[in-house]
Each structure stands twice: as structure tokens, then as C-alpha cells.
From TrEMBL:
Source organism phylogeny: Bacteria, Pseudomonadati, Pseudomonadota, Alphaproteobacteria, Sphingomonadales
Organism: Sphingomonas crocodyli
Pfam annotation, one family: ADH_zinc_N
The protein, known as: NADP-dependent oxidoreductase
Domain Enoyl reductase (ER): 14-329
Keyword annotations from UniProtKB, A to Z: Membrane, Oxidoreductase, Transmembrane, Transmembrane helix
GO molecular function: oxidoreductase activity, acting on the CH-CH group of donors, NAD or NADP as acceptor
Transmembrane regions: 119-140
InterPro entries xref list: ADH-like_C, ADH_N_2, ER, GroES-like_sf, MDR_fam, NAD(P)-bd_dom_sf
């Protein structure tokens, strides 16, 4: 079996460009004892991948130059030399950015077919777990909370919004562009939506949508969004700091937030979190999302690019605002 893969050739300076990457074709060996061979069906694009392209110290090692990158993927076992897997099994792995692979069986996890394969990269995968853990545990969602979500039309943000709504909360989302604003209002049925690109002041826009203030902020963006949340937060509000995508490609420090003293005067809780440190909640999470999905309370927004050749285009879509929901690449 032959497989194409995408490799990182140099560390990007600012926004990645095509010369930072290369495509290669390799021969996959037959699986040895305790190994499986997998053909990937879908791979996911996550903002955290940008961090691994640099050498900055983080919670996961950087991508190695000259080697295939990694990322969440779902695939089908095509050959197995391990008793726990058989051809046709649906599996999840972190071996995306390639059409297929041969690897030790402990590098893949079996998934049931009661959900579409790509769901395990979205609301039923690490994306969903990130939303679940951040909202229910880091932000400690309580009855009566008003919730503000940045990047609310994205993969994580859209799941956060839906969990908060199905639990009966007032939810306000921010996203860029009229199309995304309509999605938040018409599809996710949020109580308020802000097109931050159309607002001269994000703080004033949030004050308009949440005149009684906010109690929970789920931060995917940082910068001006975090500044607005600090300004409008009620006393003792809780912030789940998930990501700061506004800064990932920046070569200069962010000018915002400029009002961090509000965290002191309002006695706020700002809690950063990494979903990988909460895998003990995976079983409870999967049980909940399966039940919510079966009841029609949880849906999935996806932007799907066809073929590995468009994987870099899909990655760019995380940052240029062109995508809606989870960014996926359909490989097979």
C-alpha cells in the first residue's frame, strides 16, 4: 500500500506559506506483530497544529522537520496483525496528514459505527471533549448563567453553544461575517450573536447583547474578545481559556486585553485548560453526546475539503475565516 503525506519542511514565520510544507509518497510496510494498517477516511484541522509548527515550548512536542505532521483522523483498518483489530474496524488516531499508515495497535482506538465517522473528529471527538470539559468543568457552568462564546461558529465554539443551550442557558456568540452570524441565530438558536467584523466596538456590542452582564466566557480567540468579556463580566464570573487563535500567527505581542485589572476588581476566575489532561472524562462525555445527538439536541457543522491535496487550504481556513464549523479533509 502506498500513501501520500504532508511534511513540515521549515518553521513558519507568521502565517504559514506553501514553501513551509512538502508532499511525499511512501510505501507502507505490511503490519508486523501487534500492528495494524489503516486507510484514513477523514482528518481534522485544529488551531493547535499551528503551535506545533514552531519550536516554542508547549504541552506537546513540536512537529519534526522533514517528517509527516500529526493530527486527529478516523480511518478503517485494512490489515491487522493484532488480535484486537480486524479489517473493517473504524479507528481514531493522531496520525492524520497522510492517506494511510502502519503503526502499533496502541496508536489507534476503536470507534463504533453508531455515529458518522467524521463525528469522532467533531462533537464526539477531542473537539467535543474540549467544549464539554471547558464549559462544564473549567467554567463550572451553573443554573442561570449567561454564557458568551468567541469563535462560536467554529468546531469547539459551536459545541459549547449547543451544550449551554440544551442546558437552558442564555448564550451569546461572536463570529466573523453575516453568514456565521445567521448560522448562530437561525441554526444554533442562540439568544444573541455578534458579527465582530461589523462592530466598531466589540465591548459595546457585547454590552448590547448582554445588558445584565455575562457569568461565563469560553475564550477561543483572546485579544479584543477577551477584553470585551472582562469589561462586561459580572462579579465572580468564570472564564474557560481554551485558545487564542487571534495570536497564533502574530509576530508581535497582542495589544489587548488592556483591562486585566477587572479580573481582580470583579474577583473573576480565569482557568486555562488542556483537554488532553481530562481524558478520564471521556466515557461520561461520549455517553452524554450520544444521548444528546440521538435526541436531536446536538448537530454538527462541518466544512469539508476533498482530498489530501487540499489539506493546506483547509488549514488556512482555520485562520482566514472561510470555514464554518469543524474543518475536515475527506481523504477516502
Amino acid at each position: 500500500m502506498r500513501s501520500r503525506e504532508v511534511r513540515l519542511e521549515r518553521r513558519p514565520n507568521g502565517s504559514p506559506v506553501r514553501d513551509d510544507f512538502s508532499f511525499a509518497e511512501v510505501d507502507l510496510p505490511d503490519p508486523g506483530p501487534g500492528e495494524v494498517q489503516v486507510r484514513n477516511l477523514y482528518m481534522a484541522m485544529d488551531p493547535a497544529m499551528r503551535g506545533r509548527m514552531s519550536e516554542a515550548r508547549s504541552y506537546v512536542p513540536p512537529f519534526e522537520l522533514g517528517k509527516a505532521m500529526e493530527g486527529p483522523a478516523v480511518g478503517e483498518v485494512v490489515a491487522s496483525n493484532d488480535p484486537n483489530f480486524a479489517p473493517g474496524d473504524l479507528v481514531w488516531s493522531r496520525l492524520g496528514w497522510r492517506e494511510g499508515f502502519t503503526a502499533p495497535a496502541d496508536k489507534v482506538e476503536k470507534r463504533s459505527r453508531d455515529l458518522p465517522p467524521q463525528a469522532y473528529l467533531g462533537f464526539a471527538g477531542m473537539t467535543g471533549l474540549t467544549a464539554y470539559v471547558g464549559l462544564l468543568h473549567s467554567a463550572a457552568l451553573k443554573p442561570g448563567d449567561t454564557v458568551f462564546v468567541s469563535a462560536a461558529s467554529g468546531g469547539v465554539g459551536s459545541v459549547v453553544c449547543q451544550i449551554a443551550k440544551l442546558k437552558g442557558h442564555k448564550v451569546i456568540g461572536a463570529a466573523g461575517g453575516e453568514r456565521k452570524k445567521r448560522y448562530l441565530l437561525d441554526v444554533l438558536k442562540l439568544d444573541g450573536a455578534i458579527d465582530y467584523k461589523a462592530e466598531p466596538s466589540l465591548t459595546k456590542a457585547l454590552a448590547r447583547e448582554a445588558p445584565q452582564g455575562i457569568d461565563v466566557y469560553f475564550d477561543n480567540v483572546g485579544g479584543d474578545h477577551l477584553q470585551a468579556a472582562l469589561a462586561i463580566a459580572n462579579k465572580y464570573a468564570r472564564f474557560a481559556l481554551c485558545g487564542m487563535i487571534s495570536q497564533y500567527n502574530s509576530t508581535e505581542p497582542s495589544a489587548a486585553p488592556r483591562n486585566l485589572t477587572a479580573a481582580v476588581t470583579k474577583e473573576l476566575t480565569l482557568q486555562g485548560f488542556i483537554a488532553l489532561n481530562h481524558l478520564d472524562k471521556m466515557d461520561a462525555f461520549l455517553a452524554d453526546v450520544r444521548a444528546w445527538h440521538a435526541a436531536g439536541l446536538l448537530t454538527s457543522a462541518e466544512t469539508v475539503y476533498e482530498g489530501l491535496d487540499r489539506s493546506l487550504e483547509a488549514f488556512d481556513g482555520l485562520f482566514d475565516g472561510s470555514g464554518l464549523g469543524k474543518m475536515l479533509v475527506k481523504i477516502a
